[in-house]
Specification:
- The protein has eight helices and 14 strands.
- It is an alpha+beta fold.
- It has a seven-stranded mixed β-sheet with strand order 9-11-8-12-10-13-14, with helices on both faces. The chain has a five-stranded mixed β-sheet with strand order 1-2-7-5-6. The chain has a two-stranded antiparallel ribbon with strand order 3-4.
- Helix 3 links the parallel strand 5 (93-105) and strand 6.
- Helix 2 runs parallel beside helix 3 (110-127).
């Protein structure tokens, strides 16, 4: 088994695998190169952006390069739909339309392409969002890895739900809609033939209906984020940074399925940094926490929702800490790169 190091030493300035992993290297690439070139403004890095001139419309775009194309619980087609729908949902938006662009490597079996497109179409239909435009390109052998998919989504925000990564407040309860680590370990096990495929299935699924259950809570819902690349650790660090707050979670409260824990133990991985594709973390006003949990648990996607921590009343801004099973505290760092590349 080969697990590539996301940050190999190199004397020249080159792009590393870890630059696309959603951790510190990604933030450096954005801050130093991409955003300055595009005249990107200051502010929180959200999962989706408000469409200029259209206050309640939200736009998000994403590219999917997961390897392998098929894994327990899903494939690159359904993942592309779910990932984009979920990015819209994290801004409190219902999906209205999707675009889909395909970059296909010469030699990809048509049977595989047919299966992926059928899965993509079914996922869009199940989510209730039409695919209204797209593009198809074919590149030579070895110029891609079978198939890459880019999707763009347009959504409309629910009138009373306006979450942002910059709105966490001292005293907020931190809620998690379900178990962590399923997607990343499922993909890795399939890719490397580790034998966990029978025990671990990706959690990839759309979350917009789960978010809709929180609409009655309105302004009490401060932050929503799906912990994809970089896992729960990256998501919490981004929120703590953008909101300038200190966050603490309880190790005993974070649901890690036994097969995921076993796989992470074997591979030396931290479940907190393993990617997820079907759960969300919510920061809500303390007084609304029980109502939020009840609402989330009323949906299939949020049946396992739990409270995992809080925003501290004071403490170093931007810090995330974990109270361990033995009562000690440790700092949860922003991942440098991705321990599991090509996960989404």
């Amino acid at each position: 088994m080969i697990i590539q190091c996301p940050t190999p030493h190199h004397d020249d300035e080159v792009v590393l695998l870890g630059h696309g992993a959603g951790g510190r290297l990604t933030a450096e690439l954005l801050d130093r190169l991409i955003l300055p070139a595009l005249d990107g403004g200051a502010g929180p890095m959200e999962d989706a952006a408000l469409l200029p001139g259209y206050r309640e419309l939200v736009i998000s775009t994403d590219s999917f390069v997961v390897s392998p194309l098929f894994f327990p619980g899903g494939d690159i087609g359904s993942l592309a739909v779910h990932g984009t729908v979920n990015d819209l949902a994290m801004r409190g938006a219902w999906p209205l339309a999707l675009s889909v662009s395909l970059i296909i490597e010469e030699g990809l079996p048509l049977a595989d392409l047919r299966t992926v497109l059928a899965s993509l179409g079914k996922a869009a239909q199940d989510a209730g969002v039409p695919v209204v435009t797209g593009d198809t390109k074919v590149v030579g052998r070895s110029a891609a890895d079978g198939l890459f998919i880019n999707t763009t989504g347009i959504g409309q925000r629910h009138g009373s739900l306006h979450p942002s990564a910059a709105l966490a407040r001292p005293g907020d309860a931190i809620l998690l809609s379900g178990p962590v680590g399923l997607h990343g370990t499922s993909v890795l096990s399939t890719r490397e033939g580790l034998g966990f495929e029978g025990d671990i299935t990706s959690d990839t699924r759309p979350l917009h209906r789960l978010v809709s259950s929180l609409v009655p809570l309105g302004a009490d819902v401060h932050v929503l984020r799906d912990p994809t690349r970089g896992g729960l650790a990256a998501a919490l660090n981004e929120i703590a940074r953008d909101s300038s707050v200190a966050v603490e979670i309880e190790e005993s409260a974070v649901p890690v399925p036994e097969p995921v824990a076993a796989a992470c133990d074997l591979l030396g991985l931290d479940p907190l940094v393993v990617a997820n594709e079907g759960c969300l973390v919510a920061f809500v006003a303390a007084g609304a926490a029980e109502s939020a949990l009840t609402a989330m648990r009323s949906t299939g996607e949020g049946a396992g929702a739990v409270r995992i921590g809080q925003v501290l009343p004071d403490g170093p801004a931007g810090r995330v800490s974990l109270r361990t099973l033995v009562g000690a505290r440790r700092i949860v760092e922003m991942p440098l790169g991705e321990q599991l590349p090509r996960i989404c």
